[in-house]
């Protein structure tokens, strides 16, 4: 009888450890491993979507070969959004919460905001 009790306890401990690894370990590992890629792709996707919207509006309001060409170029850039979406879904499968992904995204926006401000400041034409 003691062997069955011991086996049941070992099984329960293994289940608790497995649950903890899936629930807490996997999201932590995934968010650390893919954090920088996620931030980069999220920012690129945001930028290309903005550029695509502007190019699409320009092609609609003033259709000519140049605006159509600009629109086609921005459509190719949307591949970054596809890569971002695939990585986001992979991280969700690894139990990274949507709230955690949003927080990583905010980190990217804050980081890029400061980099962009430095770039603008450096290259700004002063009158």
Key features of this structure:
mainly alpha; elongated; 5 helices; 127 residues; 0% strand
Quote the average pLDDT: 85
The parts where pLDDT drops under 50 for at least 5 residues are none
What is the H/E string? HHHHH
Give the oligomer, counting copies of the same chain as homo and different chains as hetero: single chain
Q: How would you portray this structure in words?
A:
With 127 residues, the chain is mostly helical. The chain has one domain (2-123). It contains 5 helices and no strands. Helix 2 runs antiparallel to helix 4 (79-93). The protein is elongated, with a radius of gyration of 23 Å. The protein starts with a helix and ends with a helix.
List the helices and strands and how they pair.
Blueprint: H1 2-33, H2 35-61, H3 65-77, H4 79-93, H5 98-123
Helix pairs in contact: 2-3, 2-4, 2-5
Brief summary of the model shown:
89% of the residues lie in helices and 0% in strands. The chain contains five helices and no strands.
């Amino acid at each position: 009888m003691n062997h069955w009790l011991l086996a049941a306890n070992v099984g329960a401990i293994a289940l608790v450890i497995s649950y903890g690894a899936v629930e807490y370990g996997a999201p932590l590992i995934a968010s650390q491993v893919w954090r920088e890629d996620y931030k980069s792709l999220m920012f690129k996707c945001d930028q290309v979507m903005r550029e695509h919207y502007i190019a699409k509006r320009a092609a609609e309001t003033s259709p000519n070969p140049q605006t159509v060409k600009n629109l086609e170029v921005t459509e190719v850039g949307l591949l970054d959004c596809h890569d971002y979406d695939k990585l986001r879904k992979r991280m969700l499968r690894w139990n990274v919460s949507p709230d955690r992904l949003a927080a990583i995204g905010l980190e990217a926006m804050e980081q890029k905001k400061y980099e962009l401000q430095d770039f603008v400041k450096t290259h700004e034409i002063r009158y």
